[in-house]
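We emphasize that the prediction below concerns an isolated chain of 524 residues; any contacts that depend on oligomerization or on bound cofactors are therefore not represented. The input was used exactly as deposited, without trimming of termini.
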Amino acid sequence: MLFKKISNFISNDKFLLFIIFLFSFIINKNYANLGVFPIDTFFHFDSAFRVLNGEYPIKDFWVVSGIFVDYLQAFFFYIFGVSWKAYTLHSSFINGILAIVTYFVLRNLQLKKIYSFLYSLFFAVLAYPVSATPFVDQHSSLLSLLAIYCFILAINKNYFFYWILTPIFLGLAFLSKQVPSAYIIISLTFIIIFYAIKKKDLNPIKYSFVGSLIFIFIIFLVGSIQGISLSEFLKQYIIYPQNIANSRLYNLNFSFNAIVGQYKFIYLGFFPFIYLNIKNLIFNKDYLKEKNFYIFLAISFYFFGLIFHQILTKNQIFIYYLCPLIFAFLKIFLKNEVYKYKNFIFLFILIVSFSVTLKYHLRFNEGRKFHELNQVNFDLSRDAYKLDKKLAGLKWITPNYKNNPQKEIDFLSETLKVIKNDKREKMVLTNYLFFSAILNENLHAPSRSQTLEGLSFPVKNNEYYLKDKNFFLKIKKSNKIQVIYIISSDYEVEDRFVYDYLDKACVIEHTFNKQFKKFEINKC
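Result of the prediction step, given as a C-alpha cell string:
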C-alpha cells in the first residue's frame, strides 16, 4: 500500500514538473558559473543595470539586438539585487520554464509520462546551458519556441487565449533578436492563415491579430513613457541590422558541411519526421485538415529557421536542443503508425536521443565550447568575488588568460580603482561589460558592446557611420564628458574608438598599459 502511494506520488504530473524545473534550473546555474568569455558572458549585465537606473536602449546607448533581454534582466536585478547570482537566475529560470512547458505540450499531444519526462530533461540539458548566461540568440529562439507551443496548444485545445499569446511571444522573441524570430514570424503567420482558411474559421486570425495589437500597444506605451523615438528604433533596430545581414548573405557558405555536416544529428530525427508526414499527405486525402499536419508545418519551419540562422551567423552552434525535441515529436507522430517491433523502435529512438544529448552536453556544457573555453583547465579558475562581491559565485577564467586568470583579475582590480578614483564625468569603453554595475555609476558607454566589425554599431565607411558619430557626440556633450577610458578584453586598445569620433588635437592620450588607455578631452 505504501509502495503504491509512493509510486502514485512520483508519477504525479505536479511532482514531475517540479523535478523538471529543479533539474533545468540547477544544471543551467551550475554551468553559468563556469568560466568567462567577457563580451558574451556579460552581454546584458551593464545594459540591464543601466535600464534599472533610467538609461534606456535606443535612447541612451546604441543597440542592434537584445532590448527585451535587457529589460527582463533589469527586472531580475530589481527583485534580487544587482549581482552575478541574479544574472544567472534569469537564464536558469528561462531554462526551467521552457522545460516544463515542453513537458506540458508533449503530454498534451498524448506522449506517455515517462517519455515526456525524459525528453524534457534532455531538452533542458541542451537548451540554455550551452550559453548559460542571458544571451540574445537563446532568448530569441526559445521565445519563438514558446510561440510554436502556443500555436500547437491553440489548434489542439481550441482555446482562444493561446492564439493571443502566440504573437506576443513572437514579438518578445523579435525584441530579443531579429533573427531567427523573423523567420518564425513570417512562416507561422502564413500557417495560421492557411489553417484558418482550411478550417473555415476566422478565430485564429482574429485572436492572433488581437494579440499583435496588445503587444504593439504595450511597446508604443513603454517607448513613449521612456522617451524612445520611433525613428531611432527603426534606424538602430530595424534598418541598420539589415546591413549586417546583407554582408553575411553575400558571404554565405553553401557547402555540405555547413548545411548538413554540423547538424547531422538534428537531421537524424528530422528526416524520418518529414517522411512520415509526406507519406500521410500522399495516402491520406484529408491530412491537410488534420491537426498533425499543421503541427508538422510549425515544427518544420521552426527547425529550418534555426538551421538557416546558424548557417548565416556563423556563430557558435547553440541549437542542438533540437535533437531531443525532434525525437520527441517523431515519437508522437509514430505512435499512430503500424510497424513491427514498435516498442523496440521507440526504445531505440530514446537511446539515440540520450546519446546525442550526452555527446553535446560533454562538448558544450562540460567543455564550455560556446564561450571558447574548451581548451581551458577549469582547475585554474579563481573566485570572481575577489574582483568584486557582486560577482560572487562565478569561477573566473577566460580564453585570453587561461593559464593565469589571477593576472587578469589583478589587472581589472587596478583598472576599476583608477576609474573609481577619477571623479570627473567619464566614458568607459570596454567589453568587460560589468564596470557600470560594479562601480555603481553611469559610465556613458554609447553602445552595449564595443567592436569594430560593425556588429555593435556602425563603423567608419559604413553609410550609417555619421549617424552613429552624431549619437556619440551627443552623449559626450549632454553628459559633459571630460575623459574617456578604454579597457581592452583582448590584447591591445584600439584608438579608433576615440579618433573615429574626436579630433586628435582635442585629446591628450595616456597609456597605462597595452590594454588600458586614458583620453583626456580638451576644449577645441
